[in-house]
Amino acid sequence: MQMAEEKDRNVQGWTAETTELNAGWKHAYHALSRCNTFLEGLQSASAVSEPVKKTLECEARACRAFFYTWLAQTFGREI
Length: 79
Hints:
Elements: H1 3-10, H2 19-43, H3 50-75
Helix pairs in contact: 2-3
């Protein structure tokens, strides 16, 4: 890591163009989109029993909560 990049991180001088943060932002929102799509499809799934649906719903919501938490901790109240 170059000295200027390290200084930016120490003083929170990063921007939206900072590679690592930009990649994390994109990954998180892609994951959130996939969780939401999964939850929408789960509602209409007929080949899945109700207990399994509930379990899968809880797992998808937990995954979604993880990414929302990461976004809030990383970027503040941007979401």
